[in-house]
Write a structure and sequence with these properties.
This protein has helices spanning 10-26, 29-45, 49-62, 71-83, 87-96, 98-103, 107-134. By secondary structure, it is mainly alpha-helical. The chain is flat, with a radius of gyration of 16 Å.
Amino acid sequence: MLYPVALSKQEGREKAIHYLERSFELSEKEMLHDYVELLVDVYLKEGRHDEAFATVKRLTVSMPKHEIIDPDLILSLATELSLATQFERVIDVLTLFLGTINRSCDEEKRAAAYLAFGEGYLFLTEYEKAAFRVI
């Protein structure tokens, strides 16, 4: 498992992202989950939410249709996006992996994913209400 480290300079962060992206492109499928998790974490810390979501989408394209993506990764990504208050993206990620969520043998992970869906929609609705009041 790869673990993110604190990056101090913009140049260092950009280089880290560049090499992580290259590694993701060249990696075997066994390592894809680790690279996606690390890249999403770095992108979210940089405030690059669209790129974080695009990385998740690339994972879905790179995996064979019959292969189940690790439910822990899905929940981790949803949590990271939620912590970054990207509730619409939480819903998008969970929707991308809905088949995996529904096929998961582990009821606890399925329940956690459905809870994340519910919280995502709840927070999204609350933000919409707040935005409407401001207007």
